[in-house]
Structures are given as structure tokens and as C-alpha cells.
Known about the structure:
Distance between the termini: 19 Å
Oligomer: single chain
CATH superfamily: UbiA prenyltransferase
Helix content: over 70%
Number of strands: 0
Amino acid sequence: MNVYLRLCRFPTVFTAISNTLAGFLIAHGGLAPLSDFILVLVSTVGIYLAGMVFNDVFDVEQDREERPSRPIPSGAVSAKAATTFGSILMGSGLVCAAIVGLPTFLLAIALCLSVLLYDRYMKRTQLGPIFMGLCRTINLLMAGSAAADSVQGVFQQPLLWYAGAIGVYIVGVTLFAKREAVENSRGPLALSLAVIDLGLFAIAFWIGRFSSFFGIDLPVPGDTDQVSILFVWGVIFLTINRRVLRAISFPSPATIQPAVGVLLLSLIVIDAMVIFGFLGSAALPYSLTILALLVPAVVVRRWIPMT
Length: 307
């Protein structure tokens, strides 16, 4: 079992769960209907883990040279078994999405195609980070799609804005992670941070209620105090930037890899903050539930690497 958890980089799945909770809550205001939420959650988790598996399947030759301890090149799992495992995960995700409804099923197909295109073709191209960000954006939209009566109904504000902002954030994280083995790469790392911060500022623009000053309709119905939510956002912003700036100052795998872990785990904190800011004090139990996902993510990563 442990080898398959390593194959799918299991600690990272908690960020996908976090995004799914956030997307569903933004679209529905709660977890009802619970059956739809469970099906969407199983679907997004299955497709997400499948993407991690196929990443190793397509990278097997490179991993034999650069990461021989990974499950497939080490012989712990055969490429055929990994392919079967990934196909079962992805197929299960598609079936669950189809049960929810047509909009969710179509987004699940789009997510699967984006994941496979990234893993097989785009990862080593300049479009790679954009495709990775697209996967996160689709994941969030898919989480909220159960509330849509049509495909067009999926693309509603403010979920569309938040999904796009998280997509931009992940583009920056992916750009940053691609430099982990490159020495003296301060320029590209700084550019990555700029993209990450752009995503964070886009979130603050919405959840901090600044959009109304520009005539943009991005509703925030909750009763959370604006100063309080911006304070929490500021803490997240400073924490992320402090860790990333340290990696930029001393670029090496020893500083970049931990920073990538912080960037990924910060998704959980961001989702918790957004739900509290969007739905207000009544949503505190939801926010705490999302925040609690940090515990298993941090514990499990001690034995199973996130990257």
C-alpha cells in the first residue's frame, strides 16, 4: 500500500480536497446536497491522484536516470500496474462525475484531458505551468458545478474569479518548482513569485471587497469584518513571501523544495480563509474543517514526499 501512496504523492491530495470543499461551498453555501458533494469529492480526488500516477508512468525513462528510487524505476511497481491503477482512479472519477450531472461530467472530461496532456506532452514546454494552473481552475469549477443547471451555469461569479486566481497562483508555483534543480536562478524564481503574488492579490481583490470600487460584481455575502479577513490574508501573504524570498536569496534544492511544500500547503489555508470571508461567521466550522486538512498533510509528508 505504501508504494502506491508514494506513486500518487498522497500528501498533496489534501490540497485537492481543500479546493473541492471551497468550490462546493462557494457555489452552494453549504454541503447540501451531501450526495453530490461526496460524488464530486471522490471524482476530483480520483482524477487528481490519477494525474500523479500518470506523471510517473510517462516519466519512467527520465526517472531511471534522475530519480531511481521512485516506485516504477525502482521496480516496486511495474509500469503496467501503475497504468492500470491510474486508469481505475481516473475511470472512477469520471463515473462519479457522470452521476452528478452533465456539467460536472463535461468538466471531469476536460480535467482528465488537461491532466493527461500536461503529463504526456506539456510538462516540459513553456505551456506546462499554464496547463497545471488550468487543472486547478477546472477542479474548482467542477466542485461547484453540481449547482449548475447547464454548462453555461458553471461559469458564475465569484467562483469563476476564485478559480482563475488559484489557477494563476498554481502557474507561479509550477514555475517556481521547475527551478528546484537549477543553481543561480534568481531571475526566474523572482518572476515565479510575481505570478504567485498576482494570484494572491486577485483573491484579496475579491474577498477584501475591493471589486465594488471598480464596478465589478464579485459578491461577498458573509458578515466577516473586512479588516479581519485582510489581516489573515496579510499573514498568509507575508508567510509565503518570506519563505520564497529566502529561496530566491539562496537558490538551491535545499531551500526551494521546502518552499514548494509551503506553497502547496498554503492552498489549504487560503481556502479556509476564503470560505470564512465569503460565507461569514456561520461558516467557521467549514473553515476549521478545511484548515484541519493541514494535520494529515503535514504528518503524511514525513514519510511520503510531496514532490
